[in-house]
TrEMBL record:
This is (apollo) hypothetical protein. The keyword DNA repair does not apply. PROSITE patterns: ADH_SHORT. The lineage of its organism: Eukaryota, Metazoa, Ecdysozoa, Arthropoda, Hexapoda. It comes from Parnassius apollo. It comes from the Eukaryota.
Length: 259
């Protein structure tokens, strides 16, 4: 399938990597469903998509709520009539020590958005993707395999699960001509760090540490991740399914970060 004038559903499109992906597909003239909770940010991204040549639909939804996920799929199909590409991007960082009293609360929170939401959206979207012989791209992380922080068990486990989910679903849906891949970014300049609840100084400290841990001495731009996603969604990647693509400035090769 060609990606031009296709319908692309991007979860977590209100900022960062999701916003960059939405804008990138808009530059191709595609129709993009923008999903997230922050209405103001979604409208800002929608404006940028329109200026880039896209046609957008905003759906305000909390993807930890099943009814919201059903509404996302139903509204997208009602509005655009089809679905060609699903980008499961919405996600949050944060982990607690396995010794902490909060360990299980954080595990449930992280899994509910980083893993369960992606699984449920894919489940509901699959019949429509089969009709268009479309594809799915899951935004995972190098945290699925590399050691990024000393305390990262809940987040790392959620992303490792996404990689394996990618492979298993790719196997199932190949019969129907639907491809499923993941993109695994390293440190990418987004609002992600703010979601740790760090103040500006601590955020800057962490970015500096992450920067030093890259081989290329470079934090990744969201648009670079979006370029890779655009390629994987296109006909040029027609022979690619069940694969995970790392984009990390060489971070994985540097090993454990000293925090
Ligand atoms: N930045 C990095 O260094 C990095 C590295 C590896 C992987 N990643 C992955 O990249 C993806 C995007 O992250 P980002 O870096 O672009 O961070 P971001 O700027 O914080 O974006 C996260 C997106 O997820 C959405 N989201 C979070 N919880 C949600 C919920 N319950 N319901 C609906 N939407 C929700 C947010 O939207 P609202 O706030 O509007 O709900 C936002 O659009 C994540 O899966 C993350 O794990 C990021």
């Amino acid at each position: 399938m060609s990606t031009s004038k296709k319908v692309i559903l991007v979860t977590g499109a209100s900022s960062g990597i999701g916003a960059a992906i939405a804008i990138k597909f808009s530059e191709e003239g595609d129709k993009v469903v923008l999903v997230g909770r922050n209405e103001r940010k979604l409208h800002n991204v929608s404006q940028l998509c329109k200026e880039a040549g896209g046609n957008t639909l905003i759906i305000i939804a909390d993807l930890t709520i099943d009814a919201d996920i059903k509404r996302v799929i139903n509204t997208s199909i009602e509005h655009f009539g089809r679905l060609d590409v699903l980008i499961n991007n919405a996600g949050v960082p944060g982990s607690e020590s396995i010794l902490s009293d909060n360990a299980m609360r954080v595990f449930d929170e992280i899994i509910s958005i980083n893993l369960r939401a992606a699984v449920y959206v894919t489940h509901l979207a699959a019949p429509y993707l089969i009709k268009t012989k479309g594809n799915v791209i899951n935004i995972s992380s190098i945290g699925s395999t590399a050691i990024c922080f000393r305390i990262n068990s809940q987040y790392g486990a959620s992303k490792a699960a996404i990689d394996q989910f990618t492979k298993c679903v790719a196997l199932e849906l190949a019969t129907y001509g639907v491809r499923v891949n993941s993109v695994n970014p390293g440190p990418t300049k987004t609002d992600f760090m703010k979601r740790f609840g760090y103040d500006e100084e601590k955020q800057q400290q962490v970015w500096n540490t992450l920067l030093k841990a890259t081989l290329l001495n470079k934090i990744i731009e969201p648009s670079e991740v979006a370029d890779l996603v655009l390629f994987l969604a296109s006909d040029k990647a027609n022979s690619i399914t069940g694969s995970s693509f790392v984009i990390d400035s060489g971070f994985s090769l540097k090993g454990l970060i000293e925090e």
